[in-house]
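[job 4471] stage=fold_predict status=RUNNING
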Amino acid sequence: MVISVLDQIIIWGGIIVIALIGVYFSKFSKSMDGFFVAGRKMTYPLVLASMLASWHGISFYLWLPGAVYEMGWGGWVVTCGSYCVVDMFMGYFFAFKARMIGQFTVPDLFGRAYGSKAQVVSGFAYFIYMGAFASAEIVACALVLNFAFGMNMTLGLILSAVFVTVYCFTAGQYAVFMTDFIQYLLMAFGLAVLCIFSFRFCMEGGNELLLSKLSEVWSDAKFKPTSDYSITQIVGFGIIGMEAIMSQLYFSRAYSAKSGKVARDGILSSLYAMISHDWMLVVIGISSVVILGTAGIANAEQATLYLSATILPKGFLGIVFSALIAAGLSTLNSALIAGASNLGRDVYQKAINPKATQKQIVNVGRAGIVILSVLMVVIG
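[job 4471] inference complete, writing structure tokens
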């Protein structure tokens, strides 16, 4: 499907503006503090917005409605429950202390506890992991570009990587926080637009018609809060998701905050905002079932795209697709800077050149951004 020219202009305009904003902040990113942790000066609104923008990536905006579309109410529990728990633990127990310690990476903590070898090994592992983690987001970005423009998936992968690499390479973590703030506003507005239109379409015939249409598609089990999943399975999903508690994306927000209180409050507040966003995505998933049915969608994760194209007028469709791409770029930029800090700080400075200058470490971090960009395109 190829969307209207107006919607295409809105999408490309949004991408270019975000990249230019990121490049503008390059003047603040000459030192390690500036490039890797944004000078440790980030305020509460910036920490909150960056948390939301980084964790609610485009794959989540496609994945959660798709999970509800396919699995019923239980899709929310399986996809979101563990991350809510992780956010709570990070905010209450780790964020304040992490900021007070004032390190750069998670492996810095391993180095303090277990020695430099542990930091180097874990730093390299984190670096590779960030490339794999980012690959899911860049594939989702390419999927939106393919849907909107009929663009070849490979070209979509390359263009997405180029845009995010340009401003991450030049401005580092400063660019991440500033663009995350803009991207989050766009994401929240786009999500609200799609949710409002979806709700209006679903409620045209009243509650009885809504339930009737759901019953045509969903089995009785899908109406249950946990769908077909047992408590044991749900707990298992939660335990698997708990690995995120040591994510570089969490700790880098804490390290970059201007104080321990800002780190704690920003991360905890993001929990409540995430829950509200999740329920809006649930509404979109339910709307996909009601409006689209099950015919014509080979992949449930594309339900959000098909729903948007079906119910949104020109202009609004471009805004929503821009919001989806912004969600992807905001997670990609966080992953690139996280991996860059792992390569520059944990591997290069600790194992290769302990006497390296800050400029050398930052340059190695920039090289890491390029390597990760290539890696995520290849994996994707």
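[job 4471] summary: The mean pLDDT is 86.
[job 4471] exit 0
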